[in-house]
Protein backbone atom coordinates (compact mmCIF):
# COMPACT_ATOMS: atom_id res chain seq x y z
CA UNK A 1 0.00 0.00 0.00
CA UNK A 2 2.77 2.45 0.89
CA UNK A 3 4.41 1.83 -2.51
CA UNK A 4 1.21 3.14 -4.14
CA UNK A 5 1.37 6.49 -2.34
CA UNK A 6 4.24 7.97 -4.37
CA UNK A 7 2.51 6.96 -7.61
CA UNK A 8 -0.77 8.45 -6.44
CA UNK A 9 1.00 11.68 -5.46
CA UNK A 10 2.71 11.78 -8.89
CA UNK A 11 -0.58 11.22 -10.67
CA UNK A 12 -2.24 13.95 -8.60
CA UNK A 13 0.64 16.32 -9.34
CA UNK A 14 0.35 15.61 -13.10
CA UNK A 15 -3.41 16.17 -12.94
CA UNK A 16 -2.94 19.46 -11.07
CA UNK A 17 -0.28 20.61 -13.57
CA UNK A 18 -2.58 19.71 -16.46
CA UNK A 19 -5.49 21.64 -14.93
CA UNK A 20 -3.26 24.66 -14.22
CA UNK A 21 -2.03 24.65 -17.82
CA UNK A 22 -5.58 24.44 -19.21
CA UNK A 23 -6.74 27.21 -16.90
CA UNK A 24 -3.80 29.42 -17.87
CA UNK A 25 -4.35 28.88 -21.62
CA UNK A 26 -8.15 29.02 -21.69
CA UNK A 27 -9.46 30.55 -18.47
CA UNK A 28 -11.65 27.49 -17.85
CA UNK A 29 -12.60 27.08 -14.21
CA UNK A 30 -15.50 25.56 -12.30
CA UNK A 31 -17.58 28.75 -12.52
CA UNK A 32 -17.24 28.86 -16.30
CA UNK A 33 -18.15 25.18 -16.55
CA UNK A 34 -21.27 25.75 -14.46
CA UNK A 35 -22.30 28.77 -16.55
CA UNK A 36 -21.77 26.86 -19.81
CA UNK A 37 -23.58 23.71 -18.65
CA UNK A 38 -26.60 25.56 -17.24
CA UNK A 39 -26.95 27.85 -20.28
CA UNK A 40 -26.53 24.94 -22.68
CA UNK A 41 -29.15 22.75 -21.01
CA UNK A 42 -31.58 25.67 -20.83
CA UNK A 43 -31.26 25.77 -24.61
CA UNK A 44 -31.55 21.99 -24.91
CA UNK A 45 -34.82 22.05 -22.96
CA UNK A 46 -36.21 24.74 -25.27
CA UNK A 47 -35.02 23.03 -28.46
CA UNK A 48 -37.80 21.51 -30.57
CA UNK A 49 -35.64 18.57 -31.68
CA UNK A 50 -33.67 17.68 -28.55
CA UNK A 51 -35.98 19.03 -25.85
CA UNK A 52 -38.56 16.22 -26.09
CA UNK A 53 -35.86 13.52 -25.96
CA UNK A 54 -34.44 14.97 -22.75
CA UNK A 55 -37.87 15.74 -21.27
CA UNK A 56 -38.90 12.09 -21.69
CA UNK A 57 -36.01 10.98 -19.50
CA UNK A 58 -35.13 13.80 -17.10
CA UNK A 59 -37.70 15.08 -14.65
CA UNK A 60 -35.39 16.43 -11.95
CA UNK A 61 -32.87 18.66 -13.68
CA UNK A 62 -30.80 19.66 -10.63
CA UNK A 63 -29.00 16.28 -10.27
CA UNK A 64 -28.51 16.07 -14.04
CA UNK A 65 -26.92 19.52 -14.16
CA UNK A 66 -24.65 18.65 -11.23
CA UNK A 67 -23.62 15.46 -13.04
CA UNK A 68 -22.94 17.37 -16.26
CA UNK A 69 -20.85 19.98 -14.42
CA UNK A 70 -18.82 17.14 -12.88
CA UNK A 71 -18.51 15.53 -16.33
CA UNK A 72 -17.20 18.68 -18.02
CA UNK A 73 -14.91 19.38 -15.06
CA UNK A 74 -13.41 15.92 -15.50
CA UNK A 75 -13.17 16.26 -19.28
CA UNK A 76 -11.59 19.70 -19.33
CA UNK A 77 -9.63 19.92 -16.07
CA UNK A 78 -9.14 16.20 -15.29
CA UNK A 79 -10.65 16.68 -11.83
CA UNK A 80 -12.01 13.15 -11.63
CA UNK A 81 -15.32 14.46 -10.30
CA UNK A 82 -17.43 12.46 -12.77
CA UNK A 83 -18.03 8.79 -12.07
CA UNK A 84 -20.80 7.89 -14.49
CA UNK A 85 -21.15 5.66 -17.53
CA UNK A 86 -22.17 7.91 -20.41
CA UNK A 87 -22.34 5.11 -22.97
CA UNK A 88 -24.85 3.15 -20.93
CA UNK A 89 -26.93 6.28 -20.38
CA UNK A 90 -27.11 7.02 -24.12
CA UNK A 91 -26.97 3.58 -25.79
CA UNK A 92 -30.69 3.07 -26.24
CA UNK A 93 -31.90 6.61 -26.79
CA UNK A 94 -33.97 7.23 -29.93
CA UNK A 95 -31.24 9.32 -31.55
CA UNK A 96 -29.18 9.37 -34.70
CA UNK A 97 -26.46 11.36 -36.39
CA UNK A 98 -28.69 14.38 -36.95
CA UNK A 99 -29.31 14.59 -33.19
CA UNK A 100 -25.58 14.67 -32.55
CA UNK A 101 -25.23 17.41 -35.17
CA UNK A 102 -27.91 19.46 -33.44
CA UNK A 103 -26.37 18.86 -30.00
CA UNK A 104 -22.95 19.95 -31.27
CA UNK A 105 -24.36 23.04 -33.01
CA UNK A 106 -26.13 24.16 -29.83
CA UNK A 107 -23.08 23.39 -27.73
CA UNK A 108 -20.73 25.31 -30.02
CA UNK A 109 -23.08 28.28 -30.19
CA UNK A 110 -23.47 28.35 -26.41
CA UNK A 111 -19.73 27.95 -25.75
CA UNK A 112 -19.02 30.75 -28.22
CA UNK A 113 -21.41 33.07 -26.42
CA UNK A 114 -20.60 32.12 -22.82
CA UNK A 115 -16.84 31.53 -22.94
CA UNK A 116 -13.75 33.35 -24.16
CA UNK A 117 -12.55 32.11 -27.58
CA UNK A 118 -9.77 29.84 -26.26
CA UNK A 119 -12.12 28.19 -23.78
CA UNK A 120 -14.92 27.79 -26.35
CA UNK A 121 -12.51 26.15 -28.80
CA UNK A 122 -11.26 23.80 -26.08
CA UNK A 123 -14.77 22.82 -25.02
CA UNK A 124 -15.99 22.30 -28.59
CA UNK A 125 -12.96 20.19 -29.53
CA UNK A 126 -13.76 17.84 -26.67
CA UNK A 127 -17.49 17.90 -27.39
CA UNK A 128 -16.82 16.77 -30.96
CA UNK A 129 -14.71 13.86 -29.77
CA UNK A 130 -17.34 12.89 -27.20
CA UNK A 131 -20.16 13.04 -29.77
CA UNK A 132 -18.18 10.92 -32.23
CA UNK A 133 -17.37 8.35 -29.56
CA UNK A 134 -20.98 8.19 -28.35
CA UNK A 135 -22.34 7.89 -31.88
CA UNK A 136 -19.99 5.00 -32.68
CA UNK A 137 -20.70 3.35 -29.32
CA UNK A 138 -24.45 3.60 -29.79
CA UNK A 139 -24.13 2.13 -33.26
CA UNK A 140 -22.20 -0.80 -31.81
CA UNK A 141 -24.82 -1.27 -29.07
CA UNK A 142 -27.42 -1.48 -31.85
CA UNK A 143 -25.37 -4.09 -33.69
CA UNK A 144 -24.30 -1.67 -36.42
CA UNK A 145 -20.85 -1.15 -37.82
CA UNK A 146 -20.57 2.36 -39.24
CA UNK A 147 -18.20 2.87 -42.14
CA UNK A 148 -16.03 5.99 -42.25
CA UNK A 149 -18.35 8.94 -42.83
CA UNK A 150 -21.50 6.90 -42.24
CA UNK A 151 -23.92 8.25 -39.64
CA UNK A 152 -26.06 6.57 -37.05
CA UNK A 153 -29.69 6.25 -38.17
CA UNK A 154 -32.26 7.51 -35.69
CA UNK A 155 -34.13 4.88 -33.72
CA UNK A 156 -37.87 5.19 -33.38
CA UNK A 157 -39.13 6.53 -30.07
CA UNK A 158 -40.65 3.75 -28.03
In terms of topology, how is this protein built?
Elements: H1 4-26, H2 30-46, H3 51-55, H4 61-77, H5 86-90, H6 97-114, H7 117-141
Helix pairs in contact: 2-4, 2-6, 6-7
Name its key features.
7 helices, 158 residues, mainly alpha, Globin-like
Structural write-up:
The structure is a single chain. By secondary structure, this protein is mainly alpha-helical. The protein has a single domain (4-141), classed as Globin-like, CATH 1.10.490.10. It is 70% helix and 0% strand. The chain contains seven helices and no strands. It has helices at 4-26, 30-46, 51-55, 61-77, 86-90, 97-114, 117-141. The mean pLDDT is 92.
The CATH class, by name, is Mainly Alpha
Flag low-confidence runs. Answer: none
Oligomer: single chain
Strand content: under 5%
Mean pLDDT comes to 92
Q: How many DSSP helices?
A: 7
- State the shape: globular
CATH architecture: Orthogonal Bundle
Count of DSSP strands: 0
Q: What count of domains describes the coordinates?
A: 1
**How is the biggest beta sheet arranged?**
none
CATH homologous superfamily annotation: Globins
Residue share in helices?
Answer: 55-70%
Order of helices and strands: HHHHHHH
- The Cα radius of gyration reads 17 Å
- CATH fold group: Globin-like
Helix vs. strand class:
mainly alpha
> In whole angstroms, how far apart are the ends?
50 Å
Amino acid sequence: MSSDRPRLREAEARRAAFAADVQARTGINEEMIQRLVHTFYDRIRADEVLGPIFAARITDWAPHLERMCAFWSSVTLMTGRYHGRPMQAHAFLPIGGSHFDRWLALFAQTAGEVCPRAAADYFVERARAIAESLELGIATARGLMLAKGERLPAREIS
